[in-house]
From TrEMBL, chains A, B:
Protein name: NDP-hexose 2,3-dehydratase family protein
A Pfam family recorded for this sequence: Hexose_dehydrat
Lineage, top ranks: Bacteria, Bacillati, Actinomycetota, Actinomycetes, Kitasatosporales
InterPro entries linked to this entry: EvaA-like (IPR005212), EvaA-like_sf (IPR038153)
Domain called dTDP-4-dehydro-6-deoxy-alpha-D-glucopyranose 2,3-dehydratase: residue spans: 37-238, 256-454
Entry's transmembrane regions: none
Length: 459, 459
């Protein structure tokens, strides 16, 4: 390899990828599956993935136990994840001191989508995958969705299909590769590696897998509980392919100002989250079937027994976190001189590694505010209710079914005029080009905002 | 404010800043102080900042005590910092399991340099500041160097000068604002806000402060123990002003490949660092004057009594971490098609928030390897020794004198030809444009690499 040929033009490849994605998003029909065949494939996969999920008492969990000294819920192997307590002090939001259970899973897994050209049109390899926590069993998932325990084979199951595409990608084939956080209210410091990798014709769709155009994936994103959280976060890490918003457009604020805003919010917030034993977690009680808050709000930790024909392991049991109430995550979009900007909120969630990430305009579960005064409700929640009828996107989506039981939120995108005053330094209008750049670096947009970015781009 | 005038061109401002910095780096004489006056000012400041630092037993520390249950060293106010233990498992480096004391200071402070134009030439407001741990008392520091305890006035001292320039910068005046880590072997999750802000003529140099051109600052960077660590890290966050290396140049690897490399190293390393009590930290012993390793290597925790006429508080006592031996941090630079690239190592240091950051080609204290086999020594250390005579930069510099006692390292930049094979996936050649971009986002280059980038740019 001579120095000359080794030199890569770092911009050229990116433009090519955007053009290819734009072509795939506009492709009239699927090159591999027609829309009719896609619908039939989904129906078929749903039929052939029988999965029985049954609530069981913790005592019947196989390999899981409450540690005697702390009350923490752990797996005997030390793998998977643990549930312990968290003592939080935070100046973000209406409550400043609380304790809660939290999922601790320090390993970094891989969420990856393989992309491949068919007749010049880029296709994404999507998986039909059942997860025990899903309200409807099967959802559309990334090519690979592997915890480190998974791919290091802690549970002794079969190898994860397509894993090598992501662990050993060919030179120049990586489109995106970035660590992104997951729910900071339920996970402690959790992040996964979000990857998109180009593959060649040697990679074929196995059982439960299908090559879809970006238009087809975008179409599925418009349906309730169909594209799972892991797929959505990876999709958000694709370079934005919309030429009208990612060209050399201007932004309301300079990139430096946006970065400075994030830095300031991180530096000035006072958030301390200290791990504690689950047994000593104040206001949370354990009965044979669940660990719940005395108020009945927030969430419970539950246990399920799973029988499935389609997983690395055919039958297992595990704990899941079950939110109480349906969440709402809403994004305001406003045009400034023709360029759409999104209204993001700098959120301090207790489990974030870096204090603050940018979330949707509104992100909450309304029921959790019922005991609080009206003024404690999140800013813009009333505006979301008023304008929701005119939303350009309003879909019920699930959080990750491998950790969360029946966890659904309404994801809503609303176009607004410019009569939306900013209520505090927590909010800022950010352009799509800036979102695109922030998503290339870790921990800038939280998982709910990433879902909304994927949803917005799909329109 | 109409939408049209509100639109900021996010690229224009950046180019202007680079041009202004290039002008300042090339300015023949200082616009404010001549080089002769600068030398006189430094000599004068050193004379007028008498500081007595005396080792004392821990028992004589005012406000500091070893906590009974844990043995942790803490301040009675809960402010400043604490020293506790850390139990580390790591697959980076030759030792895989160890315990050590660590400084825990979760607050984010501000390190800021104000810049202002005089007769069209950009000047930096630098401070002559004594720190108890410095080998030579006074060093050249940023405009502001404030822990949160400092500026929230935990210690009841006087207000931090110029702080408002950074806490409330004028719109559009921020040049850089990014959280950066500090020594991951000595600090747990420590980071500071690195800021550069443009100010107007209303900001004047007070006592102990001087306006210097970038050429003058760069000149001072060539002198032993003169520009302190805090100044160096902020300087590294300046946009790279060298037109020959930051234009639309090519790089050996695409930006996506470099980001993917960092993500991969973070995902694949296995590092766990668990806080433990200082008293239970294995192989470390406490006597009345220090906490030290049984081998005599690594570092000690010591206590000092300080009398100073020039600080927010005139007299105080505090613990300091005292490294044993002089460190070395070396950076290889190699031209690829005329574009210089630096050889960075993906390092997992126990205190990093995000597992891995990019460090110098070589970073170590040789004495710590004396009990280990030769093969355990860091890659390229022998090459650094062989080529050090031809180094283009070789200066003895101090780490932060507010936390570290007599902590010095040789910082060395060596230009190499292309006969340097990469020994593992831990190493990669990165272009200056890529370094520039990585430094706009948090936690990509460690503090030693940032010093070397500032040093390299100064040449």
């Amino acid at each position: 390899m001579t120095p000359t040929t080794a030199l890569a033009s770092s911009r050229g490849g990116k433009a090519d990828t955007r053009t290819a994605l734009a072509g795939s998003a506009a492709a009239v029909d699927g090159g591999v599956l027609s829309d009719v065949e896609l619908a039939a494939w989904l129906a078929d996969r749903r039929r052939t993935q029988p999965q029985q999920v049954e609530r069981v008492p913790f005592a019947e969990l196989d390999g899981w136990r409450f540690e005697e000294s702390t009350g923490d819920l752990r797996h005997a192997s030390g793998g998977f994840f643990a549930v312990h307590g968290l003592r939080v002090r935070s100046d973000f939001g209406p409550v400043s001191v609380w304790e809660q259970p939290v999922i601790d899973q320090p390993e970094i897994g891989i969420l990856g989508i393989a992309v491949r050209d068919f007749d010049g049109v880029t296709h994404l390899l999507m998986q039909a995958k059942s997860e025990p926590g899903n309200v409807n069993g099967m959802q559309v998932s990334p090519t690979v969705q592997a915890t480190k325990s998974n791919y290091m084979r802690v549970h002794g199951g079969s190898a994860v299909k397509y894993l090598d595409c992501f662990r050993r990608p060919a030179p120049g084939s990586v489109v995106a590769d970035v660590l992104q956080s997951e729910q900071g209210s339920w996970f402690l410091g959790k992040r996964n590696r979000n990857m998109i990798v180009r593959v060649g014709p040697e990679v074929e769709a196995g059982e439960d897998f299908a090559w879809l155009t970006l238009r087809q994936v975008n179409m599925l994103l418009g349906q309730d509980n169909l594209v799972n959280m892991d797929a959505r976060t990876v999709l958000s890490c694709l370079p934005d392919w919309r030429p009208d918003v990612t060209g050399p457009t201007t932004s309301l604020h300079s990139d430096t100002e946006i970065r400075s805003w994030i830095t300031r919010r991180r530096a000035e917030h006072e958030v301390r989250a200290v791990p504690i034993g689950l047994a000593e977690t104040k206001d949370w009680h354990r009965d044979p079937y669940s660990v719940s808050h005395v108020s009945g709000r927030h969430f419970s930790v539950a246990a399920v027994d799973v029988v499935s024909g389609r997983r690395e392991v055919a039958a297992w049991s595990q704990p899941l976190l079950e939110p109480h109430g349906t969440g709402i995550a809403a994004l305001f979009v406003r045009r400034v001189d023709g360029v759409p900007h999104v209204l993001l909120r700098a959120r301090a969630e207790a489990g974030f590694l870096s204090v603050v990430e940018l979330g949707p305009t509104v992100q909450c579960t309304e029921e959790n505010y019922e005991d609080l005064p009206h003024a404690a409700r999140p800013p813009y929640l009333d505006e979301v209710r008023e304008r929701r009828e005119s939303a350009v996107y309003d879909v019920l989506l699930s959080e990750e079914g491998g950790r969360f039981l029946n966890a659904q939120s309404h994801y809503v995108v609303i176009e607004v005029d410019d009569n939306i005053p900013l209520v505090s330094d927590e909010f800022q209008w950010v352009s799509p080009r800036q979102v695109d750049e922030l998503l290339r670096y870790s921990h800038h947009l939280n998982v709910q905002a990433r879902t909304l970015i994927a949803a917005w781009r799909s329109l």
